[in-house]
Structures are given as C-alpha cells and as structure tokens.
C-alpha cells in the first residue's frame, strides 16, 4: 500500500506527522500541504465537518444511488471507523486530510491498534473504497478543494477461486434440510421451509438477501421462473429447476400455511417465520448451518451455495456470459473469477473429456472405463536424412528415437 506522493514511506509504515505544524514550519505552506499529501496544519482545517459530510454522503448512496441496504450499512461502518481515526488525530474536517493521512489509515487497518485487530488485505481494500468514494463526493459537492484520495490505491488482494462445495456435498446438505425434525406441525413446516430455501439458493444462485426478500408475486411455478431483486435495485428473472419447483410447491402448500395460521395479515413474503413475519437473514443462516452440521459438511454458507451454483455451471460447460446474467453481476470480470482452476471440482477425466470434445484437432484415445475408439488419421511420414553417425529413423521407431546418446533428431529440434 503506497501513494504516488509518498513512494516507499507507506510500505514502511509512513512517517508520523505533527498536525499542529507544517513540514517547513511556515504556516503559509499549509494550503499546499493538503493537496500534496504532506503534513497539514490545524486539525480543524477548512471545509465542512467530516461527520456532516459523511451523513450527507450516506444519504446520497442510500437515496440517489440506490445501493442495497446491506451495502449502505457496510459503508456506514467503514466510514465510522474512518471518522474515529481522524478524530483521534485531531482532524475534524475533510479539508484537513491529505494523502498521507489516508495512507496512514490504511496502514493502521492492516496492522491493527489497541481497539481493533489487524484486517486482511481484502477488508482494507473494501474500507478504502468507501473512503475514496467519500472524498470524491466531497470534492464534487465543493466541501473540499481537491480529491486527495484519488491517488491512494489499495493493495490488490490475491485472486483466489471462491470456495465451492462438491455436488455430493450440496446434495447431502439439501437432504438433511428436508429430514424429519419432529412430528409436530411446526417441525414439519420448518423442514419444508428449509428444503425449499436451500433448493432455491443452490438452484438459482440467489443471494441470501434476495431469497428472504422474495414475495409471492415474484414466483411463477407454472413457468418455472423467479424474479430476484439484486444489488442497486437491479432485477433479473432466473429459471427454476425441477427440484426447486417441487420443494417450493411442497412448502407453499404444506409448510407456509402452518406458519401463518392464526396471523391476521401474513404479508406477501414467501419465506416466513413461525410468527408469520418475513424470515430474517439470520434465521435463514441458522437453517443452513443446522443442515450442514447434520450432514457433516464444513464451510457451508448461503454465499458458498451461490459460489457452488456458478462453479458447477461453468464446470459443465456453461458460457460465462450466461452465468453472469444468472448471478446478476454488473460486469463479466466479476464472474470470471469462477473460471480459475478449482482442484476440488476439476478432475483429469473431466479435463480430458472437455479437451477431446472441444478441440478441433484433438484425437481421443481409448481411455480406462470407455469403449469408444476413434481412429487417428493416417500420417504419411517422409524419409528423414540421418545425422552423421546415426542410423535412419525407421517407421517403427518412436518419435525421438534419434535422441539416443545425446544426439537430437530433426523432429525434436522443430
């Protein structure tokens, strides 16, 4: 993590600045220090109060940009941490912040302090996205004279394939979700609800917030489709598989009526609690965790089911653009991370099958466990002059037979 202005100082932890004075000791230099990222003057600085700007910015992303509720909550947490960092150093105005202060904030996040543990690189990058967006907004609104965060770049976290379960693990998870939990009516309803929820999550790649936010009008089981409302208010229509349709029909006919019995106005929610209210994300999480514990599957979560949905589709030849549409990704680059090699899901047999069925010049050979045989086209081999001291390569010799005693055949040198 470094800034353009500071070079290697950010990597070494950056210098400690005294905000009560300037680097040159001349108050006349204060106006230029903010723009250059150097030491700033009085912590109060010029410009609007940081807390007021943050409040207006959060209203902006919630109302005008229409970000999802969870995204707004994440921005609020991240910017509260940023404001606490600035206040602890006597800075009350965004106009008194330079590149050096933002870089120091990133270093503090990575190393931790007396009140917070160190954060992973991905978490630091996420917080810096919120900080950069705040300063860009403040500059556009005229609260500060320049966007000093524009040149502060978070370190790119390593790209790793998202964790995904195998098909057998997903099957075991869903079977356990639908397993009997008791003979009482509530137990039956919760079992049907859990099975329908997990089938929906895995069958559509829905986010947990999209699943619990479903209304009855979003389902069309006759046409086997569901309308999901994603981030930023973006909606998409996703096909429903046969297993998901059956599980949802069973729940809507035999489970949901039991949960809303005695409730005057149950509302439009598809997934409801035993009190008839919309199921919360935490309750949905608990249902999945209970099924995972019973099935002995570790690392399962709603988002891992979403990862599994995408990985299994791509593993079976689905086009990445189609998977992008199904997941509701704004950019295909987000979806392409699923194309990274996942050794838990890709086997040599599968690689051989895809290669031989897709490459125009591939010639399948009889492989263990298969009966199909494809005859390779005949190849006419021209006589090859033998090097001095070597016998000619005959038709019965394997390729590379001329490599004996350290000599290389003409074919090997090609």
TrEMBL record:
InterPro entries: CB, DNA_brk_join_enz, Integrase-like_cat_sf, Integrase_catalytic, Integrase_recombinase_N, Integrase_SAM-like_N, Tyrosine_recombinase_XerC/XerD, Tyrosine_recombinase_XerCD
Location within or outside the cell: Cytoplasm
GO cellular-component term (any): cytoplasm
Main location: cytoplasm
Keywords carried by this UniProt record: Cell cycle, Cell division, Chromosome partition, Cytoplasm, DNA integration, DNA recombination, DNA-binding
A single GO molecular function term of this UniProt record: DNA binding
Family the UniProt entry places it in: Belongs to the 'phage' integrase family. XerC subfamily.
Protein name per the record: Tyrosine recombinase XerC
Annotated source species: Parafrankia irregularis
Gene of this entry: xerC
């Amino acid at each position: 993590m470094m800034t353009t202005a500071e070079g290697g100082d950010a990597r070494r932890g950056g210098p400690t600045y005294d905000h009560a004075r300037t680097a040159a000791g001349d108050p006349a230099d204060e106006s230029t220090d903010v723009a250059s990222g150097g030491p700033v003057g009085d912590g109060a600085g010029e410009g609007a109060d940081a807390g007021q700007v943050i409040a207006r910015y959060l209203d902006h992303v919630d109302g005008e940009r229409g970000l999802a509720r969870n995204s707004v909550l994440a921005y609020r947490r991240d910017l509260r941490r940023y404001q606490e960092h600035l206040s602890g150093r006597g800075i009350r105005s965004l106009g008194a912040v330079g590149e050096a202060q933002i870089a120091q904030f990133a270093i503090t996040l990575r190393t931790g302090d007396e009140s917070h543990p160190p954060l992973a690189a991905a978490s630091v990058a996420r917080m810096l996205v919120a900080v950069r967006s705040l300063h860009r907004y403040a500059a556009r609104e005229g609260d500060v004279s320049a966007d000093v965060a524009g040149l502060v770049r978070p370190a790119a976290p390593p790209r790793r394939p998202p964790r995904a379960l195998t098909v057998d693990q997903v099957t075991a998870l869903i079977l356990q979700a639908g397993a009997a939990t008791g003979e009482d009516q509530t137990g039956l309803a919760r079992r049907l609800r859990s099975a329908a929820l997990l089938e929906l999550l895995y069958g559509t790649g829905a986010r947990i917030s999209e699943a619990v936010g479903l209304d009855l009008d979003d389902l069309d089981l006759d046409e086997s489709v569901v309308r999901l409302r994603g981030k930023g208010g973006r909606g998409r229509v996703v096909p429903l598989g046969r297993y998901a349709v059956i599980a949802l029909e069973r729940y809507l006919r035999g489970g949901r009526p039991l949960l809303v019995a005695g409730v005057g106005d149950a509302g439009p929610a598809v997934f409801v609690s035993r009190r008839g209210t919309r199921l919360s994300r935490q309750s949905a999480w608990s249902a999945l965790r209970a099924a995972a514990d019973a099935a002995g599957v570790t690392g399962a979560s709603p988002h891992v089911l979403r990862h599994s949905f995408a990985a299994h589709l791509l593993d079976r030849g689905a086009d990445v653009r189609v998977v992008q549409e199904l997941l509701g990704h704004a950019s295909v680059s987000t979806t392409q991370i699923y194309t990274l090699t996942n050794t838990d899901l890709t086997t040599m047999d599968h690689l051989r099958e895809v290669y031989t069925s897709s490459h125009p010049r591939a010639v399948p050979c009889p492989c263990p466990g298969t009966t199909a045989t494809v005859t390779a086209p005949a190849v006419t081999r021209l006589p090859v002059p033998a090097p001095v001291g070597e016998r000619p390569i005959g038709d019965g010799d394997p390729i590379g037979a001329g490599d004996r005693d350290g000599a290389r055949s003409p074919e090997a040198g090609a």
